[in-house]
Specification:
The complex is a heterotrimer of chains A (about 325), B (about 350) and C (about 300). Chain A has about 325 residues and is α/β, with parallel strands linked by helices. Helices cover about 30% and strands about 25% of the residues of chain A. The chains are: A alpha/beta (about 325), B alpha/beta (about 350), C mainly alpha (about 300).
């Protein structure tokens, strides 16, 4: 990996204002993303995991300026993405693409598959006419679909096939970085496997970098080089894949890992059940956002006051906890 | 309350609680009649936990709905199907007796609590409604039982929560409310249709724990519909695998995971990404599920099966015995030597 | 074609055919006064199936000729409304921000003005209006609904994920609108047009009846009704036949609109939250995705 990361995100924040009353006054904010920092190196996959409401999707979209961040910096290949405007922003879009979760909503039902893939080529002046058609055919083939399918409409395809189309569309402009926003969550297991394999192959062949957003830790285990765990708008733990799965330090990560149902009826379950429900991002707890549910015996009043910074506790392993995380990790990895 | 007797008043203890025989559900389509469920048979015994597992379009949800005669039109349960619950023939029961059974002896938990709950009624009212329909308790008693049930499903501050509306509760809590509604009359059988699919994994863990706990306490039978084999491993004692509207394998849960017989089950198990086993590539089942209007001849799985041979195209296999409680719908059961010949299936 | 659609189409086709071809088939010119002595105010007979009016014009010919005028007026003015309304809605959406909000507010104001009053006022002030002037008047007072429809639908479409995908690709506003979003509007616009034509036919009949629309001696269903206004009982054929024609035309247009809506509207709303689906492997033509899997969710 090169020394300078391809993508540098620092203190990214996105607050959605809550407006109430007749005059629509701002009475509060949903702190969807609250000070997130991480790097993605060229050719690597950083997974962003967490449950609903943790802000992972908002983070992904904010990086691409599909949602405008409230504050923070995003540097892509040295360029300040948040400062770009108009044409320069548009040109940056070529290099940073996105694949969506919903295979049904993310393709325009009124455009043929070929037209959808061709859009990128036309809009960025990369090809036109028959040259563009040939590119589309090549792309369809690369994602495992027949070139004839270019003339068909999205509703004629299954979920897995539509995801492949979405991938082909993203690849058309030859990006170097792709935000994969839960690309397999809405797919059946057997189809999921196909798409995961495809994403991995493409990464190897084209040297792509992925920000892989997911809630399914098992899928993440097959895709990620490093994993960042998010909770209520913040990253609570970030570590290489092996480390996260073998020695997670944060109780939330441990609970998350232990909650995944194991497809083995003989496996012993050491389940760490977190009490209660996750709090609302409109009203996050003070200090460490996890403290109301944290089972760490060292938890005290300081946890309610201090927002723990994400610190490197051991090589490459970042944790946001001011106490020594003491809970013994459950053994999941071999 | 007893079910009026149009059947034996005393059901023999070894007779299954639920007996589904040759269930067929058809939909009209542009290409003729499409059978979304084509001859499904299975049983659930008292107190047993059975999982029906399959991917989308296999017909598992429709099968669940048919048990309470909730199949939405234009779907139709075709003649020749038989569903027997505690001795009663569900499909020929009159409305009064069917209503008697629904909610009281056989209850259902749906997948999406937000849409299954009425947004304009408090959750307490909705649970109390079940009591109002099936019992003649006083208002106070009804409310007391409602609050008690909410507490039993793990909702803190049940008295206050009962007065809240569904949108004021989180997804996990709404699902608990659904469970409360289903269990308040202590039914003999609870059908749960993908009860945790829409929930986060930590909440899912809580809900599954709750279901196990309640089962232990009440001795109810559980029919759990899911696509998640992890959930199956946790919850089931027996498993039924469905594909394209048919049962393709059924077995005890340990047998199914340790020695799957049908190539589809085998493929499913191999395709699951597992923590702690990061292979280089995930194994896949090539192709995708055929729609009910365009099923291949012979075995419906043959286009995707790595072991398919000549017989598979001409003859649909019957559900054959593999072990004492293990059956599979595959010719390989009779011709195990063919399992040695694996071939690549053409990718679509 | 769906079962509802064919009868509606047949009805409409019949209407259009009769109206277009009819006047060529009848032996009499619509304004020809055939025999002011012998043939005035004749009740329907074999020679004059719809009777004759006070100046001995054949009512059948007039009804057919009037149908042309009424229908032409309706179609032209509705087309105008549709174009103007769509343009307004599209520009508003394109502009976005404050401009968009302002244009929407202005639209709200325009929608609150009762159209009939405006038409009556103009009619009263300007008196007789030529056919093109009528088309413009009715067209320019009728586009507000379309504009509202367009802005609302575009707003909904913009929130869909495929719009986001287009933006992520770098597609600019005008192209997004033209290539990605407007095609969604076509069914709605066609349906709106059907109902619009129905309404305008009735509107024209009413206006002409009041003397503010098509002017005599040109036949239109409204003017014929006007001619028969004072003698509804004695010369009932002057009221009955144009009345029936109007009703028939309105029904036909509404039926078409209904059938189109049934055909297009439920299918073409992009489904928002679905997931797991079976595969119509597209080798043997199209199959609509399975309606057989009721369990659909997108993970949170």
């Amino acid at each position: 990996m090169s020394a300078t990361p391809l993508l540098e995100v620092r203190n990214l924040t996105k607050h959605f204002p809550i407006r109430t009353g007749l005059l629509q006054r701002v009475t509060g904010a949903v702190k969807a993303v609250d000070g997130v920092s991480f790097d993605v190196h060229a050719g690597e996959t950083l997974a962003l995991v967490g449950e609903s409401g943790c802000g992972k999707t908002t983070t992904g979209r904010s990086i691409l300026r599909l949602i405008e961040p409230t504050s923070g910096t995003v540097r892509f290949d040295g360029t300040d993405v948040l400062a770009l405007r108009g044409e320069t922003l548009r040109r940056m879009r070529r290099r940073m693409q996105i694949i969506f979760q919903d295979p049904y909503g993310s393709l325009n039902p009124r455009m043929t598959v070929g037209a959808a893939i061709r859009e990128g080529l036309i809009v960025h002046g990369l090809a036109e006419g028959s040259a563009a058609d040939r590119r589309v055919a090549t792309l369809l083939d690369e994602v495992g679909l027949r070139p004839e399918y270019a003339a068909r409409y999205p509703h004629e395809f299954s979920g897995g096939q539509r995801q492949r189309i979405g991938i082909a569309r993203a690849l058309a402009v030859e990006p170097s970085f792709i935000v994969c926003d839960e690309p397999v969550s809405a797919l059946d297991v057997s189809v999921q496997a196909q798409v995961v394999n495809l994403l991995r192959d493409l990464q190897r062949e084209r040297g792509l970098s992925y920000l892989f957003i997911a809630h399914d830790l098992a899928v993440v285990a097959h895709m990620a080089d490093r994993v960042a765990v998010m909770y209520l708008g913040r990253i609570v733990e970030l570590a290489p894949r092996r480390t996260i799965f073998s020695t997670p330090l944060m109780p939330y990560t441990q609970a998350l890992l232990s909650a995944v149902p194991v497809p083995d009826p003989t496996a012993k379950r050491q389940r760490i059940l977190l009490p209660g429900d996750p709090p609302s991002p409109a009203n996050p707890p003070s200090g460490c956002v996890f403290h109301p549910r944290c089972p760490n015996p060292l938890k005290d009043a300081e946890c309610t006051r201090v927002v723990p910074p994400l610190e490197e506790k051991s090589r490459g392993h970042f944790v946001a906890c001011i106490k020594q995380p003491l809970l013994h990790p459950s053994s999941h990895a071999s | 309350m007893t079910i009026s007797a149009t059947r034996d008043s005393t059901t023999a203890p070894d007779r299954p609680l639920l007996d589904v025989h040759a269930l067929k559900i058809a939909f009209p389509s542009e290409h003729g009649v499409a059978r979304a469920v084509d001859g499904v048979s299975f049983t659930v015994s008292r107190g047993e936990s059975v999982c029906v597992v399959g991917e989308s379009g296999c017909g598992k949800s429709l099968t669940a709905l048919s048990l309470l005669r909730l199949v939405p039109p234009p779907g139709r349960i075709e003649s020749g199907s038989r569903i027997t619950f505690d001795g009663a023939d569900i499909l020929t029961l009159d409305d009064e007796r069917l209503r008697d059974i629904r909610g009281q002896h056989m209850a259902m938990i749906f997948q999406e609590p937000m849409t299954a709950l009425n947004p304009v009624l408090t959750v307490g009212d909705q649970i109390a409604e079940v009591l109002r329909v099936h019992t003649t308790l006083s208002r106070q008693e009804t409310w007391a039982r409602t609050v008690d049930m909410l507490a039993q499903v793990g909702i803190a501050d049940a008295g206050a929560r009962a007065k809240q509306y569904p949108h004021e509760l989180s997804g996990g809590m709404r699902q608990r409310v659904m469970i409360a509604m289903a269990l308040i009359m202590s039914p003999k059988l609870v059908i749960a249709d993908e009860p945790t699919t829409a929930l986060d994994v930590t909440i899912q863990a809580q809900i599954l724990e709750l279901l196990r706990d309640l089962r232990a306490r009440t001795g109810m039978a559980l029919l759990l519909i899911t696509h998640d084999l992890g959930v199956v491993a946790e919850m089931a004692s027996r498993v039924i695998v469905m594909y394209a509207g048919r049962v393709v394998e059924e077995a005890d849960v340990e047998d199914l995971f340790a020695a799957p017989s049908h190539p589809y089950t085998e493929g499913l198990l191999a395709a699951i990404p597992k923590l702690g086993q990061e292979e280089e590539r995930l194994q896949t089942i090539s192709g995708s599920v055929p729609p009910p209007t365009a099923l291949p001849s012979g075995c419906t799985f043959r286009d995707r099966c790595p072991y398919a041979f000549a017989r598979c195209a001409t003859e649909e296999p019957a559900l054959l015995q593999v072990g004492s409680a293990h059956r599979a719908r595959c010719h390989l059961v009779e011709e195990p030597a063919r399992r040695a010949v694996r071939h690549d299936v053409v990718r679509t | 074609m769906s079962r509802r659609l064919s009868p509606a189409f047949v009805l409409m086709a019949l209407l259009v055919a009769v109206v277009v071809a009819g006047p060529l088939l009848t032996p009499y010119a619509p304004n020809a006064q055939l025999d002011i002595i012998a043939l005035r105010s004749q009740a329907p007979s074999l020679a004059h199936p719809f009777g004759t009016d006070a100046v001995s014009r054949d009512v059948l010919s007039r009804v057919l000729d009037g149908g042309r005028v009424s229908l032409a007026l309706a179609i032209l003015s509705v087309s105008l409304s549709l174009v103007v309304g769509t343009l307004y809605g599209a520009m508003s959406t394109l502009a976005g921000g404050v401009v968009d909000s302002t244009m929407r507010r202005l639209l709200d104001v325009a929608l609150s003005i009762p159209r009939l009053l405006v038409l009556l006022a103009v009619g009263a002030l300007w008196g007789a209006l030529s056919f093109p002037a009528l088309v413009l008047l009715i067209g320019f007072t009728g586009w507000f609904d379309t504009a509202r429809l367009v802005t609302d639908e575009l707003r909904a479409l913009r929130a869909q994920e495929f719009s986001l995908a287009a933006r992520a690709m770098g597609v600019r506003g005008p192209r997004l609108l033209w290539r990605h979003l407007l095609p969604h509007l076509l069914p709605t616009l066609v349906i709106t047009a059907s109902f619009g034509v129905a309404g305008t036919i009735a509107l024209e009949a009413g206006l002409s009846y009041l003397g503010l629309g098509i002017q005599a001696p040109q036949a239109s269903w409204g003017t014929i009704l006007r001619d028969g206004a004072g003698v509804v009982q004695s010369e009932w054929w002057l009221s009955l036949f144009p009345g029936l024609a109007t009703v028939f035309a309105v029904l036909a247009c509404n039926a078409l609109g209904d059938a189109l809506r049934e055909r297009f509207a439920p299918n073409h709303v992009p489904r928002r939250a679905t997931s797991r689906d079976t595969a119509p492997i597209p080798m043997t033509g199209t199959t609509s995705p399975s309606a057989f899997s009721p369990s659909r969710t997108v993970r949170p």
